[in-house]
Amino acid sequence: MDVFLQLTVSGLSTGMVYALAAAGFVVIYKASDVINFAQGDLLLIGTYLVFFAVAQAGLPWSLGVLVTVLLAVAVALAIERLVLRPLIGEPIISMIMVTIGLSSILRAAVNAIWGPAPRSFESFLPAGDVALGPVMLSTGRLLSIPIALAVLAALWLFFRHTRDGIAMRAIADDQQAALSMGISIPRVFGVAWGLAAASAAIGGIMLAGIVGVSPNVASIGLRVFPVVILGGLDSIRGAVTGGAIIGLLEVYTGGYVGRGLSLVVPYVVLVLVLMVRPYGLFGKEIIERV
Amino acid sequence: MSLECGVFHTRYESDMGLRPRPMQRIRLAVFAVFVLVFPFVAGTYWLDLANQIAIATVGAIGLNILVGYTGQISLGQGAFMAIGAYTAGLLTLNAGLPWGVSIALACVLTSLAGTFFGLPSLRLKGLYLAIATLAAQEIVEWAMTHWTAVTGGTEAIVLPAPSLFGVRLNSTFAFYWFGVLMAAGTALFAANLFRTRMGRAFVAVRDQDIAASVIGVNLFRTKLLAFATSSFFVGLAGAMIAYYRTIITWERFTLETSIVYLAMIIVGGLGSIRGSFFGAALITLLPALITNAGRALQDTAPMVANLLPYAQQAVFGVVIILFLVFEPKGLSKLWGNVKDYFHVWPFAYRRG
After folding, report:
1. What is the ipTM of this complex?
2. Which fold has domain B41-343?
3. N or C terminus: which one in chain A shows less Cβ crowding within 10 Å?
């Protein structure tokens, strides 16, 4: 039972990082139909920027997090303006390749600046364990779950209640109608990338606290795909649910079946979902079919 | 050499020729002479690069048949190459087949595997297919490293050196001829493929699948055929790598490989055979050129040498993005521009 609880906490906290990355992916996909293969690198940037701000520049935690999010948003806005905007309306393959190119550049930049070796620094999440009955649970991981949920809830509220959020949904619904209502598409695309970067940066900051600062963080970018397909490509709720399910599934198979298997389980789920229910749990049922 | 002012076909044979115009023949002859002379002039280093380009050309043409001509996005190139390489190697090691037979069987098996992974393409389009092939890549990659009984896991598989009439084929010089033969054969096959009904059907499916099915193209059959044809050559490329290096490791067939090959056909030109070659050459040479440049700078600026691996990675990304933004049709289009300019040179009647 105690193993089960520990695995659950660990799975949920990993799952919430997936959910944050996936939410960013969903926001970009919803607004601009871009499949962002650089989502993992946005996480990576978050991780290293917070390392830079707190450990290297010596800022206090609260300020460091703020600076990280702002810098990540600035990077994303630059990417959107310089690289993505000229490609609006290009075929899917171009969109995929351009984000892959971006991912390559971002990773190279991070490696060139901070080097390939993992770094460690003191986390803002408390380090110790908390006792829940007979079971010891990592406080950091336990705390990261509500933090992530709060961020995701904020994102969800943004879509429901702010002008930009509603504009984004309008564009996702019908681009031409949205244009004729005076919604500025470039602005919305910019907001989408900014939000995606902010959400990923917070995920990256949490990762820095939970697993440490290393270039491997970027590999989580690929885990986003099982999550978003399971949850539904255009749904924030789906990203949260999908993230939790994939995170839990990974640690359970890792813990009970074997470590090797946990690497492939998300992709097996992905294939199954594509076969049975390609629009995922919460996605809209309109999917391109042949 | 007469100046061309138009193409006038007077016989059906010339109309249907692959390279009917005199200038095309001259260019082909010049290129052929270069290919024949090159191995006698170049050192081992450049010969090795040429071999890599030959292998990459086979793989890139294979991928281009699927992605560029039929419009089915695949991120599973690395997985298919792995299937080709491991089949070719294991058939020789475990069943004792001669290397030529193993390679042929590997191509056929990869073709079948490609058809199987192509099945989702019947229901899924565009990005969903891309994600499905991504999953296929991850699953095959996992099988390579964890299915120890068959693939040896993360350990490398060592193959016996292939030989033909007593000549060791995996030396850079001998492999060059094999590589060129395979690349030329693949290019010729692909060039002819798109002059047949089947090849035209591929292109029709890419451009407008509903219209294609209305005029009598069987989407089911055509897509699977595209996957099969494409994977055949991709498997060939994988098997060639296996026998060139005589060592098979899973690191050569990761998602990164898929991405590198996609970059080749993007940079070279989607739906272009010469583009596949240009792209294969550029993407293979790029890291080598950067390394050389870095070595040259090592004495003047030692700091640069440390940044080399990152510079390669960054330049790779920059090249992809620059091509997508400024020349989405790739090197093939640039080469076309050059040819068009000289077509009626110096009597150009229009600019650009």
Report:
1. 0.85
2. ABC transporter involved in vitamin B12 uptake, BtuC (1.10.3470)
3. N
